[in-house]
Amino acid sequence: MAYIEDLRDVIRKLHGVESTHRESVPVKEVFKGKTIWDGVVEVFTLHGHPTANTAYAWSHATDDPDHPKRHVTVLHVPPAVSPETAVRAFIVQEFRANADIEA
Question: For the chain, how many structural domains are there in total?
């Protein structure tokens, strides 16, 4: 249960509200026949957030030895209105951020 508590802590730090874990949703994102993301998105109910009542969260390993794990949270705000669309929004954001670095 430490994983869920870690994600709740990240939600509290980033979004300033408490949360309750609602469910775990497996998500597999495929693009042009290749799996680009495969994992479990944790869904949380937010308590007192001004614009969203739900957050989607997960963590993944990184290649950075100083920060081997990265936590991700996405608020339930269009276009991120489900675990699947939260993952897609994250992928697009990461792609754009990496494109800016390479430009």
Answer: 1
